[in-house]
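User: Can you recover a sequence for this backbone? Please restate the input before giving your answer.

Assistant: Of course. Working from this structure:
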């Protein structure tokens, strides 16, 4: 008998998996399989040995082989990989957050690899669901002036702390993190800014006036606390969030910058009609690998503050020393896309030089990669990238990360991110302790 509880839960919560009525010390294999949006199939398996009472509690018993080893309640989720015979570079991401993943769990006798023996018949099977939207969360498409995105509102009357969620430079409208943040009590705007509807995938510049308009719209929403908002962003989105805080565009109360960037590269930004300089990547330093292009070494490092070439331009380097709100930096040492060791040190040093080191929280994770996501998400160490293809480059990008270390980083940082945002966005400045 295979029991699962709860049958539905958010992706960042634990589903308890138990197998009963086995023989004492019986060897079994548990296989998990999920069909993602677009028909992508991901799976994992783990080997267990039943207790003397004929039971396996995945929260307590170690996996002795398979996709992961050791004790991990959600090891069957974070260790998932694409099943064989699928196209290269796929990634398990939720495009329709209103529908949860259905995870199929099979229990087989003995220590086997179910992928290698399709004729195996399971002893028992069961299913459970993992989602990004809690009951009662409202999903509201936003088309206000230039603003393109989706607003997620938590259950209840509000007003709620407001957050803008920005993804990286892949383009489109991505909602899974925003819906999960709303499930934890934040009115969250998933904001599109590249390659969505009337937005170009590769614009001539990143217009910060657009983000100011979106921030002011969110702050003025009747369901949002009016004293200011938080920014939750990754990669290129982190660059934008740090720019907004540096130039004090709209009332930004806190910034979570995952795998941050601090240089206008390769696009400039624009603010109030003025365009920034850029420091282009050194394409000769892009490293080709079996999995994809490694950009980490092509991005500029070892820089000092560079004055704009003309009075009509901003510097290509983000003036993070001007930030006056708390900043949480999240990075992995095995990031193959952004030189985060340089970036994080640059931010911390600039704040420290200006007596603002107390504003910075640094979460640095050994062997974690670039795409640090909510807990139990499988590692994506490389994927197809339409922007790279559009500019004529190799269409696969290496993100980096070691599976176990990356999973631990995701599990550790997510509750800290939620606490950080609650602490600094939920309350007005005058009432904060």
């Amino acid at each position: 008998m295979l029991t699962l509880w709860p049958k539905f839960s958010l992706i960042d919560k634990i589903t308890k998996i138990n197998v009963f009525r086995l023989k004492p010390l019986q060897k079994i294999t548990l296989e998990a399989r999920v069909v993602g949006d677009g028909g992508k199939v991901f799976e994992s398996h783990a080997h267990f040995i039943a207790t003397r009472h004929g039971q396996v509690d995945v929260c307590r018993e170690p996996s002795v082989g398979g996709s992961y080893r050791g004790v991990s309640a959600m090891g069957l989720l974070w260790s998932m990989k694409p099943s064989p015979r699928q196209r290269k570079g796929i990634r398990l991401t939720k495009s329709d957050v209103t529908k949860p993943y259905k995870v199929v769990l099979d229990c087989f006798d003995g220590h086997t690899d179910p992928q290698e023996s399709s004729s195996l018949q399971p002893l028992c099977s069961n299913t459970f669901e993992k989602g990004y939207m809690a009951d009662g969360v409202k999903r509201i498409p936003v088309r206000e002036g230039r603003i393109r995105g989706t607003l997620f509102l938590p259950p209840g009357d509000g007003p709620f702390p407001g957050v803008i969620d920005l993804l990286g430079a892949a383009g489109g409208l991505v909602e899974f993190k925003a819906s999960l943040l709303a499930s934890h009590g934040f009115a969250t705007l998933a904001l599109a800014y590249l390659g969505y509807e009337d937005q170009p995938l590769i614009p001539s510049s990143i217009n910060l006036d657009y983000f100011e308009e979106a921030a002011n719209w969110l702050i003025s929403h009747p369901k949002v606390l009016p004293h200011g908002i938080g920014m939750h962003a990754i990669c290129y989105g982190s660059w934008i969030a740090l720019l907004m805080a540096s130039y004090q565009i709209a009332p930004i109360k806190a910034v979570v910058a995952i795998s941050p960037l601090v240089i206008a590269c390769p696009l400039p930004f624009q603010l109030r009609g003025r365009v920034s300089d850029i420091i282009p990547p050194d394409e000769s330093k892009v490293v080709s690998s079996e999995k994809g292009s490694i950009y980490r070494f092509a991005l500029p490092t070892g820089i000092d503050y560079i004055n704009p070439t003309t009075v009509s331009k901003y510097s290509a380097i983000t003036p993070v020393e001007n930030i006056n709100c708390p900043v949480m930096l999240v990075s992995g040492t095995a990031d193959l896309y952004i030189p985060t060791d340089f970036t994080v040190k640059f931010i911390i040093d600039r704040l420290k030089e200006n007596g603002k080191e107390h504003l910075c929280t640094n979460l640095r994770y050994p062997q974690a990669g670039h795409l640090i996501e909510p807990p139990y998400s499988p590692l994506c160490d490389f994927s197809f990238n339409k922007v790279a293809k559009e500019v004529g480059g190799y269409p696969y990008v290496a993100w980096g990360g070691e599976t176990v270390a990356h999973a631990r980083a995701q599990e550790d940082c997510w509750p800290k991110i939620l606490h950080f945002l609650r602490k600094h966005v939920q309350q007005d400045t005058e009432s904060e302790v």
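That completes the design. The helical segments are 75-78, 176-183, 208-219, 236-246, 340-353, 386-390, 403-425.
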